[in-house]
Amino acid sequence: MNEVKDELLSSDIRQLGRLLGDAIRNHLGDPAFERIEHVRQLAIRFRRDNDEAARAQLSAALQALSQEETTQLTRAFSYFSLLANIAEDQHHIRRTRAHLIAGSPPRQGSLSHAVGNVFDAGKADALASFFDDAFVSPVFTAHPTEVQRKSIQNCQMAIARLLSERDRVQMTPEEAEQNEEALGRGIVTLWQTRLLRTSKLSVMDEVANGLSFYDHTILRELPKLYSSLETMLAQRDARWEDVELPNFMKVGSWIGGDRDGNPFVMADILRSTLQTQADKALDFYLGELRKLASQLSLAQILNGCSEPLRALAERSADASPHRVDEPYRRALHGIHARLENTRVVLSGKGKQADGVQPYAAAAELLADLDVVQHSLVSNGLRALARGRLRQLRRAVKVFGFSLAPLDLRQNSDVHERVVGELFAGAQPGLVYLDLDEEQRIALLLAELQSPRLLTSPYAQYSEETTSELDIFRAVREAHVKYGQESVPNCIISKAASVSDLLEVALLLKEVGLLRQDSREVDVNIIPLFETIDDLRAGPAIMARAFGLPFYRGLLASRADQQEVMLGYSDSNKDGGFLTSGWELYKAEIELVTVFKQEQIKLRLFHGRGGSVGRGGGPSYEAILAQPAGAVQGQIRLTEQGEVITAKYANPEVGRRNLEVLVAATIQSTLLPQAHLQPKASAGAGHLAAMEELSGTALNAYRDLVYGTEGFEQYFWESTVIAEIAALNIGSRPASRKKSTSIEDLRAIPWVLSWAQCRLMLPGWFGFGSAVQAYLAAHPDGGADVLRGMYTDWPFFTSLLSNMDMVLAKSDIAIAGKYAELVKDKTLRDAIFTRIRAEYAATLDALKLITGQEELQQSNPLMQRSIRNRFPYIDPLNHVQVELLKRFREGKQDAAARTGIHLSINGIAAGLRNSG
Asked: Are strands 561-567 and 524-529 parallel, antiparallel or unpaired?
């Protein structure tokens, strides 16, 4: 049955590939098409047979290509990856719709499945309190390979709409032919549209890209999710009739506020970002108001209206005689006029209309929309109130005038230097950096409780200190202009001490965001524990902070809630995949215990990347695999890399992914049996086994990455990291410092580089050695313990499931081609031989524990995806190796740079969660 259903996907992919081939022939000619097809066939032979003949022929074919021909080939396979993504997304929608139309039981991960489970478990009464306190927030972050041009996104959306139309509409032969022709035109347009920007990426480019997903998905689909859930609850229980849920879900952003390692995010960028976000929200509201006014053509003579609605209409400047008896239209015209003036105030665009008062806050706009809603309901027009007006009211509630809560983030080292300079200026001779931790805490607390300010308008400060103070001042301005929800959080990267928290508190005090007399603070101070050592120390740091009366006072002003962010990326780079996952899990358990003892509400913010090596993987399983008490109805998690486009570019796919986050949070909170820790009978043994596995894996990983002489050179020569750094892909430098050390390298380029060469090392290395050592130490029953962990413990199941996916997307033969880029043969052979042996050991260990005979055996959807797309990703890898050879031999013209950039984007798009 699945084969029959999947044939529709295969048919779509074949058709899109054929139409792309036609576009290539028409534009470049038959010889170019034949070259591209020849390379594809050789790449398939290389993957299938991995024989020397195929390797030699492929190398010869690529070396014979001119730079222009190489670029043509790279473009062809990159565009096909985009088309394959569209086809897969549409097939997923097709299957989901067919499931719903057939009236089949709700699928796991859907809202209906989660709500049904809660009612079936007899816990329906807990839902009200759950939603009162719930908060679910995916947070978009910028990514170096995933700043796709809006023109490309528009082309993809047009193609997706045409594919969707064929599924939803029974077409006549003429209509089917017209659809086919339009599809061809769409693909020609895509082929003729540049994939890359012609200028260096700026932070505001990244902001614009992030906001494009609001156009496609978030602004429309998130309000629909609320409405759908409200209706679902009302159908289950009459007590939910006419109940409007609190705003428990928002989509946040780091783009334009993340300063960690990005020198280009300054105060003016923060202001521009918030202004752009506000303009996006208000533009959407204005468009919806115009559509709503066109629909509510209700004549007063035919239907009454409320007195508040009549007053709203009378205040409107709409003097058209054609609408004199249409109070709803007149009222909406007045709301539109006020909102237009509000847009002028917040975005600086246009000119204010005289005599029209702008809205001071989104709450005022919502109050006017509520007048319209109440009038409709009170006059028997409930059905009209539940249409576009319902969605607009929810949008205003959720997005306000700021659209997305924007987080600030900065490294603790920067805060430390800035505070040190301020103290030195106020107390000459005081060297803050020379103080130990207890001395720092004492000094900071004394200053936090003092009414004086350290800053002086007459002092000259360094550029760094001036910049940090300026951006905090910009936050205060934003709170006045847009409300405190516009910038609600300040995240401290590399948090490693209580003083790191207090330093930020002091900087907030200096600009008026913290008031020492009332102990009120206007933003959440959030530590980010990233490295293995920091994760281990995190719970004790929070316990120490909670023991300080002043800090507890600050938390009282934030509803006795503390958010803690956990870094998946840097902990992985620091300690490897297995140890990172285990230390994160243990840290969560300890944090839950500390917070419970101190009676502080815990919200965890999971800094997950797109790739498994950065904490990625299916969100539903990841949330359910959290230790007991770690979710508590509240969760934030980052959405990064190619995952943002994969999840949110298509509105229906985006809606499904938003639902998954809510469904998993509901189940994790109200049905804790879904994520129990290891069964009591075997729990202690499982925990001990995991500790043993983690210790061995950590040693294996750190010995390779940080303990092997020449590994840094091997990494820089065998991957595309040097080109990522040199090509300035993204607004953020690849390293935190001007060095090539792995310690200073940011996690995104670290993981991305390994993904590009198809080795995916951060997502599996060390596991094979760990299992081998465990089995050797426990020859009697060791394998049974590991299999029991996989069967009974969601954390371990999720860990291995993610590793399975990474290994399925890896290719040791292609990785070997990249290894040949290392000039020192002795170094190359020594390290790659070691990596290859660990890869084989990891494959064997995974199969032993899971009982699988092949990778992704339990995930036919992923197997299908690999079959469909790898014949087009593999050639890009081979081309990239050839391009890197040429580039490093000195052929570094614009065409060579473009070719490498294209290959990076093409491979990332094809793998979908590589960065």
From this structure: parallel
In what helix (H) or strand (E) does residue 908 lie, and over which residues does it extend? Answer: helix 894-911
**What are the pLDDT digits (tens) for 871-891?**
788 888 988 999 999 999 988
Same-domain check for residues 415 and 468: yes
Q: Are residues 662 and 537 both part of a single domain?
A: no
Q: Tally the domains of the chain.
A: 5
Q: Which pLDDT score, from 0 to 100, does residue 641 have?
A: 60
Tell me which amino acid residue 305 is.
Answer: C
In this structure, the chain runs to a length of 915
282 and 241 in one domain? no
Q: Which of 67, 3, 71 has its CA nearest to residue 906?
A: 71
Per-residue pLDDT, averaged over 733-741, amounts to 62
The confidence score (pLDDT) of residue 495 equals: 97
pLDDT value of position 735: 55
Query: Do 564 and 538 contact (CB within 8 A), yes or no?
Result: yes
Residues 6+ apart with CB under 8 A from 537: 496, 529
Strand order in 252-253's β-sheet? Answer: 252-253, 135-140, 634-639, 601-607, 561-567, 524-529, 489-493, 407-411
Report which of 142, 293, 279, 290 is spatially closest to residue 205, judged by C-alpha positions.
142
DSSP assignment letter at 811:
-
Average pLDDT over residues 130-149: 82
Distance of alpha carbon 267 from alpha carbon 253, whole angstroms? 16
Q: What are phi and psi of 727, to 5 degrees?
A: -85, -5
Q: What gap in Å lies between CA 129 and CA 34, rounded to an integer?
A: 64
Give the type of residue at 245: L
Whether 705 maps to a domain, the answer reads yes
Which of 399, 426, 459 is the C-terminal boundary of a domain?
399
Give the distance, in angstroms, between the CA of residue 116 and the centroid of all CA atoms in the same chain: 28
Asked which of 558, 586, 601 is the last residue of a domain, the reply is 601
Q: Helix 126-133 and helix 111-120: axis angle, to 10°?
A: 140
- Say which amino acid occupies 11: S
Q: Which of 91, 250, 509, 573 is catalytic?
A: 573
Q: Which residues contact 36 (CB under 8 A, 6 or more apart)?
A: 24, 72, 73, 76, 77
Rounded Cα–Cα distance for residues 231 and 226 (Å): 9
Residues 435 and 527 in one domain: yes
Answer yes or no: 374 catalytic.
no
- Using one digit for the tens of pLDDT, what is the confidence trace for 452-461? 999 999 899 9
Instruction: Please report whether residue 882 resides in a domain.
Output: yes
Same structural domain, 888 and 739: yes
- Bridge partners for 489 per DSSP: 407, 524
pLDDT at 749: 81
Confidence of residue 677 (pLDDT cuts 50, 70, 90): low
Whether 479 sits among the annotated catalytic residues: the reply is no
Same domain, 642 and 744: no
Tokens of 475: 């936050």
Which residues have CB under 8 Å from 827's CB, separation 6+?
A: 710, 713, 714
The one-letter code for the residue type at 187 is: I
Beta strands at 514-515 and 520-521: parallel, antiparallel or unpaired: antiparallel
pLDDT tens track for 262-304: 889 999 999 999 999 999 999 999 999 999 999 998 877 667 7
- Cβ–Cβ < 8 Å for 605, 564: yes
Helix (H) or strand (E) holding 528: strand 524-529
Closest CA to 187 of 12, 20, 18: 20
Nearest-5° Cα angle at 71, 70 to 74: 90
| Sign, CA torsion 405/394/396/610 | positive
Q: Are 182 and 188 in contact (CB under 8 A)?
A: no
Spatial contact of 915 and 756, defined as CB atoms under 8 Å apart? no
Catalytic residue among 91, 143, 494, 586: 143
Q: Give the helix, strand, coil percentages of the chain, each rounded to 5.
A: 65, 5, 30
Phi/psi for 490 (5° steps) reads -125, 115
For residue 607, the surrounding DSSP H or E stretch is strand 601-607
Domain of 227, in residue numbers: 123-147+202-253+608-671
